[in-house]
Amino acid sequence: xxxxxxxxxxxxxxxxxxxxxxxxxxxxxxxxxxxxxxxxxxxxxxxxxxxxxxxxxxxxxxxxxxxxxxxxxxxxxxxxxxxxxxxxxxxxxxxxxxxxxxxxxxxxxxxxxxxxxxxxxxxxxxxxxxxxxxxxxxxxxxxxxxxxxxxxxxxxxxxxxxxxxxxxxxxxxxxxxxxxxxxxxxxxxxxxxxxxxxxxxxxxxxxxxxxxxxxxxxxxxxxxxxxxxxxx
Length: 232
Fold this sequence. Notes:
Layout: H1 2-45, H2 62-69, E1 74-76, E2 87-96, E3 102-113, E4 119-125, E5 164-172, H3 184-192, H4 196-199, E6 227-228
Parallel strand pairs: 1-2, 5-6
Antiparallel strand pairs: 2-3, 3-4, 4-5
């Protein structure tokens, strides 16, 4: 019995970790598909505004445009939260250059909620240096390096304005495949904020459920972000 208990204490956490990892990869794949669809849309129309009008942010047509390009995942309005790994909330947004000129609808955001409780976010920008007018430093379009967070003496070598794809996430503090270990309030916080409207706002105000423009990484493997608390 002792041996069985020891083996169980090793196997169960490993199983839960592997299951969470699989859950997260499912959501990440949906985000990747949405990014590809958005880039195809951009190539056809010249920006991320919808196909019928010049509407950029909060377009009611844009999700349908992307849905046609990839019918395998559900694209929903920016104001709608993702309710699962194959439901992607999408948002387009304008960008500005260093002369504070509006460059048009040059940014795209997509969010998907993993069954692990983690909200995954993808961002792509074609041109521009800021997500808000006024050259707000905190709204600069930057991508963080793959710094080893355990090596505190290592200085990041990048943090400059970079266009292209970038990735982020946030999750409950007690993230686990075991629902019993997840506080309902924490899951609710993650779910409510897992939308294109919230994550594509360009907000520079720090919060537990809003990923700042400076908190995006160059790949999924390097994503480490804020943990959601019950107070949200």
